[in-house]
Amino acid sequence: MTSATVVGAGPNGLAAAITLAANGVEVTVLEANDTIGGGARSSEGLVPGLLHDHCSAIHPMAVGSAFLRALDLDRYGLRWMLPEIDCVHPLDDGTAGVLYRSIELTAAGLGPDAPRWRSLFEGPARNFDALARDIMRPLLHLPRHPITLTRFGIPTLLPASATARIFNSAQARALFGGVAAHAFRPLHYPLTSAIGLGIITAGHRHGWAVAQGGSQQISNALAHKLSDLGGVIETGTRIGSVTQLPPADITVFDLAPSTVADIMGDRLPGRISRAFRQFRRGPGAFKIDFAIEGGVPWTNPLAHLAGTVHLAGTYAELAATEREVHAGRMPDRPFVLVGQQYLADPPRSVGSIHPVWSYAHVPHGFAGDATKAIIGQIERFAPGFRDRIIAKRSHTTNEIFSENANFVGGDIMTGAKDVRQLVFGPRTTLSPYRLGVRGMYLCSAATPPGPGAHGMCGVNAATVALQDLGIKTTAI
């Protein structure tokens, strides 16, 4: 029987394992930590019963993932929950850009920019499920829906700064810019529109969902599915050298490229080893978990209903902030993302005490303390916030890396999403998953289509592995 070892039990590693097991492969997953999930984990930490997501928290790309939907994960306890409003981007004058799942509601709040918003998103959102069959694969491939992909793809090549200029209002520009800034790139760089257009389009189709009971439930459901297929997961098993790997026909790494290079050593072809060791990392995240009495006292009333709130002021301020972070300088007012997952999933709270998830974009490997800056940004748009803090815990870039070895320097994107790495992955090749060693593959978020709990990096890598062995893949 064909055998496989998957190193790393994040969503991509688990997705690779499921894809292999569903096609008759005997699979063992080795996870270094004591708990599975990678970035998709949750736990209680500040107040007993108060549930916090470790990293991945809001899932517009995962809720619509064709792979996850095909697994029927509700059988294993996964439930998707939607807030009333997906995202709010408040401004200092008390107004805000407001993103609903509904394009009509979103456009209605953008005044004269309504026709532009509808023009940009109506077609792609309507065709998103077909579109996703292409955009969730390596960008350089024979498309299954070429016309749909072309119509969507041409605007994604633009810098976010160019797309933002389509809109006249400060609210629409800030709303789009805040989502585009999820790329952790200066917004005047090419292809930065891709992240904003992709996430907003996915949200207009499926919403910015959270997993009931925390993001850990995504990982747990995947693990249960794998177990039903005969796969085995071993936690607390760290692989530091290729000599520690059990014999297998297929080995798949859900790890950062540099870590794979360290493990493989001389077994990795020189050109690939050099590319993996020169893999460019992106800026970092500095995260704070809060326990808040009565919720955040936002000035803008619609922010009280939003699963996500982006704090950066105007588009111009946001763009300047992202340039500073990319240059290695910590801004006084960083871009802060606030998650209010409890609005869609109330049992995460304990009485009137609510878990609030937040992080700021900071320079790669930032060694300072961004706690004051993050609280200051929240206080800016929610006066009185400090007085409602019951407890808090800060996570530095180094602590984020310690909790997840893929997040070097606090880089939760698993690599800079510049043009080359966004298109090709960690090396310039049409086969980003192969390691140049027979039977060995890479499936982490360093490979296309990139970060998120959608699992498609793992599915793509496992599919290539099966094809290399001449195993005809079957639908899950």
Q: Can you walk through the features of this model?
A:
The protein folds into two domains: 3-44 and 59-78 and 212-279 and 414-468, 3-Layer(bba) Sandwich (FAD/NAD(P)-binding domain); 80-210 and 282-403, Polyamine Oxidase, Chain A, domain 2 (Alpha-Beta Complex), CATH 3.90.660. 34% of the residues lie in helices and 16% in strands. The chain contains 17 helices and 16 strands. It has a seven-stranded mixed beta sheet, sandwiched between helices. Strands 9-2-1-10-16 form a five-stranded parallel beta sheet, covered by helices on one side. It has a two-stranded antiparallel sheet with strand order 3-4. Strand 1, helix 1 and strand 2 form a beta-alpha-beta unit. The mean pLDDT is 94.
In short:
InterPro entries: FAD/NAD-bd_sf. With 476 residues, this protein is of the alpha/beta class.
